[in-house]
Amino acid sequence: MTSSTLLMSTPDLQACLKESLEYFQTQRYRECLELLDRLIEVEAPINGLYFLAAVCALKLGKLDRVIPALEREHLNPQCLPEAQSLLAEIRTQYQKNPTLLEDLPSHSEYLVCGMPPHSGGTGVFLSALLPFAKEAGVRSIFPAGGFFSEAEQARIASIRDSHIVILHPQTLGYECFRSLYNAGNKISMYVLDNGFFCIQSYNHRASKRGECFDCLGDLSRCHPSCKPVPIPVSREGNLEFLSWLRSAALNIEFLCQTHHQAALLATHFGSGITCRVVGMRTDEFNGVDVVGSRRLPETERFDIVLHGHAIAAKGIRYALELATELPEYRFLIPSEAAHVRGEAPEVPISANVTMRPLSWNTGLKEAVIASNLVLCPSEWSAPVEGALLKSLEFNGSVAVLETRYGFEREIPDNLILRLPLDARRGAALVRAHMVRHSRDASEATKLWARQYRNGVDLATVFSREK
Asked: Is the N or the C terminus of the chain less surrounded, counting Cβ atoms within 10 Å?
């Protein structure tokens, strides 16, 4: 028996164990774990002690403690069958993921993303980032498909004393993120959206046009209508994580896409945080030369094309309002009519609007190239959006909505058309633009977009002071 064990007498140990079991049976896992930690601290010779601690940790989302506790329990020659079964089940689950098969050594470098490659915007960016991670000797971890299971999260949370670049905390799992932080890891968070202060990730809500800053610096102002996006976690749990993130922000490095995004972070977390602007680039621009694109006949061309998902945050309502104010121009909305009506039921759809479900690879690219103006009217503080970059580079005549913190603020005034939220005023600006905009102006915009893209070095995501 060690000297620390002597700090608690046998009756004390028995009383502590009895009380902890009562808490466990009544599902008061937090109180149970606190008592179990006292017994662990004095190395109490109790069979199943670490197994109970692992179960409590799992129930409480303290994922960094689960696998280490179970492995410690397995060192006991009288290891409980339940402990053996739980560890075997967790291993079976996470071993389905090829990125988790090898050991996860401490004092290493990791890239952890909650989405697999090529799955939406985050997945496309991850695909571009993976070669740079490999070149830098950084181990990449992501789901085999869909999202991480709880077993995978527990496996990831067993990483200790390492440097971890995290993409998309929402799909990684808030408890997994927090567990990695608590396990002594240095966290660098690449900021993909505004989920660091907005539970909807895009700081926009249907009842309030344009950017919403209600929760910026004050999470208590979260509107009752707002719900967590894109993962349907509890609203309370999401806000609790964001509150914790504010308390931990000074110890996290934030990797930003734009200088305005860095300013938004500083406004929310305070000027003392560590931010690095590393930019954003994907591999969607392979074959950027438009010569190889199918040229649309005149009858299939549209004057103005919306480039973006038909959702409120991306400006579908504004696009419809603008179309109503500009009946002389033909508009293309690349989405099904039912989806558009469901997203903007209160906005009339004028006769000059064509709705057609198109993606970049199924006709939208050609429509963008052939149009006289591409509309990217995001109503949130959007960082670098792929749709905007492609519109700039493939067409050059592009209109956006004015924002306070969006990437559009970093594009020179003479290269882009900025519109006010008032669609009637915006329509007047569009008419003037259609008359005066020249091919030379479009070429200058395309050149700027190419120079921006080529100036982004994703290797800097993994550069830091050793």
From this structure: C
